[in-house]
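It is worth pausing here to work through a concrete case rather than discussing structure prediction in the abstract. The textbook approach is simple: state the sequence, then state the predicted structure, then interpret. We follow exactly that order.
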Amino acid sequence: MKNIEIKGTQFHNKGAELMLLSILHYFRSKNSKHKFTISPIYDGCVYDHYAQLNLQQKIWLRYKGIQWGMLGSFVPKKIRKMYGLVLDKEIDAILDASGFAYSSQWGNEPTKIMASYTKKWKKEGKTIILMPQAFGPFKNKQITKYMQIIIENCDLIYAREQNSYENLISISGEKEYIKIAPDFTILLDGQLPDYFDASIHQVCIVPNMRMIDKTNFTSDEYINFMLKIIKLLKSNNLNP
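Step two, the predicted structure:
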């Protein structure tokens, strides 16, 4: 039985939550005996959320640029076990399902921090897998160096699409353990609400605020784009 950390997921973002649920569903549907751990995140992943999913809590907190998780070693193991607390050194494998964290779009810091973690984890013999996610672009030498460190220390990396794959191999060259795989949340069975009537609505449109504040789209452009989608659907007798 292994301790597996699911990294980068939270409950504030629906996509991140679905990735967490998909991973748990996959393993638990196979009657896996592994234990799963998650690191709390301010507001995005707190006790009320992960306790319902029978997840252990990793003692892990970065504050003022310092990782304070090592202080958890002062808590006796019996007490940690009683409260479902896990130390970083007790983790056997990391499944990183960040979605989109390692890119110049977010600055160097997230990639820099992950680079330092992967170096530490690799030395400790942990298995590190980056689940299907977007990578890059990497627009300066520093973030490229950090991403190179991450690539070197991972056991398996899945880019979510061709552009992300090319962003990775432009740094490291082609590697057997760098592959392309699609979004895996489609493996999770959806649950239709009682009020849903497929004869009235056939398509669900989910607007994404990030398309306005994190891309070159303006608010008007994005709204017009969504309107075009709606008109196209209706012209094909599909009601959103």
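Step three, interpretation. The longest strand covers residues 127-133. The radius of gyration is 20 Å.
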